[in-house]
Amino acid sequence: MYDFTEQFEALRHKSNINVLGIESSCDETAAAVVCDGRNILSNVILSQVDIHKIFGGVVPEVASRNHTLALPSIADRAIKESGLTLEDIDAVAVTYGAGLVGALIVGVTAAKSLAYAWRKPLIKVNHLEGHIAANFLEHKELTPPFLSVVASGGHTGLIWVEDYCSYYQMGGTTDDAIGEAFDKVARLLGLGYPGGPAIDRLAKEGKPSISFYKTEKHANSEHSLSYSGLKTAVVNYVHNLRQRGEELPIADICASFTHAAVDILVETAIDCATEKGSDKIVLAGGVAANSYLRSKLEYQADKKGIKTLSPSLILCTDNAAMIASRAYYSIINGRDLAGLDLNAVSGLRIGE
Ligand code: KG4
Ligand code: ZN
Question: In which domain, by residue range, is 238 found?
Answer without folding.
Answer: 143-311
